Amino acid sequence: MSHARHYRLAAELLFMAAGIANCFGQPSAPDLSEASLEQLGKIKVYSASKHLESAENAPSSVTVITADDIQQHGYRTLADILSVVRGFFVNYDRNYASLGVRGFARPSDFNSRVLLLVDGHRLNDNVYDHAMIGTEFPIDIDLVQRVEIIRGPVSSLYGSNAFFAVINVVTKHGSDLEGLEFSSEAASFNTYKGRISYGRKLQPWEFLVSGSFYGSRGHNRLFYPEFNTSQTNYGIASHVDDDQLGSALATVSYRDFTLQSVYGIREKGIPTGSYGTLFNNPGTRSNDAHLYIDLRYQHTFARSWDLSLRAFYDRYTYQGTYMYASPDNPEQVDPNLDFADGKWWGTEMQVTKTVHRNHVTVGGEYRDNIRQNQSNYSINPYAISMNDKRTSFVDGIFLQDEFSITPSLTLNAGFRYDYYSMLESNIDPRAALIYCPWTGTAFKFIYGEAFRAPNVYEMYYSVPQIFRISLCVRKIFGAQSLCGNKDWGIGCGSRLLSSTTQSVT
Q1: Choosing a second label site near 200 at 20 to 30 A (CA), which of 73, 278, 382, 478?
Q2: What string of H, E and C letters represents the secondary structure of 122-149?
């Protein structure tokens, strides 16, 4: 493909540049593979309570994967990292990587039961709630400082999608590079990757700018016994597994302000003949793009309380091209085009203060989904299957208190209230009793509830719209979904509804 040739040429140029460049190396991170249990327990994490604390005192079971781990084990995608985390497993269907937790992996839910963050910024889109962990993840793994995996329901802090886990990808700073850095790779199946990054810390400024590309022809010959006939190339998918992507990251900090922008785009050939498409047709493919701009402010006032503010804007687009035989002429190809277009902006505020033996965190969040569009149409003959346009908003407030009963015993308790304009309100609590009898040992008793609101894909696309009603209320497994004057599908099961889980560990 022309894209693959372009990626290959760029990769060769980067190989030459890497050979002559005077690159400033990144300081090596501490080798945690030889750290003691006491040292591992003192690793600082942010995502468990929305402030830095040791993993030992966090009200959750926590795993941290560092940049050193990524380099030593050769992980190339976020899916590679998560596949080795205790209790997690990853499946790959030659298009997207699907994440399962504790044996649960519902087909086609697009990882919507896991909340994915980048430096605290919510990455799940507003159409599918998709947590992208494969090559479609818009951050180069070489720019990851650490990955925090918080197990269990954490909706008491984050709201919807924090169902089975919260994954926070923390990116590197300019001081981690301190100069210019080139990276280039080559692998089998005409696979090439290149990256150029520059980072520097010049008080009071700090910045990191990076661009990456990746291109692969994929497996030349994939065999699928389901298509083992003479009409379908005897089940061999040849040169239809290509994968190309480009990504960019820019982070600029000035005193207490941090501005971050991320852009990633990926095009993937689909070799599996999914959804009844023509087998071994190179035209069947998916395109994903995600852009966000995030401005953060964080300041400590009089050494007694911390204020954190965030404003952000996101844009997510998807286009799927699926090749079918035309119903009018089986010899003619009928492309079916599937689109999703999401835009949203929002703000967050959080205040943290220590009062005697209480460490109190209170905050709020507002997300305005200004575009949640889905469409689908065929070309030969031209026919529109759907053209759905939605808007919505989400309000949320949360409160958490960490009460030190004794130096070795801590009670962590809190809740979050969310209001969904398309659904209903929801309250999710969490409580944890943490006992540390001696250094390096912690006993945790944790109770939590989590909530996952249905997304617009589940409500208006993936189920048939049979009739309209002015008001529908349905209850299943203790969770309610309230819809006003919206289309509703019969026989759609629980995909239409919100989901609730309770966990005691």
Answers
A1: 73
A2: ECCCCCCCCCCCCCCCCCCHHHEEEEEE
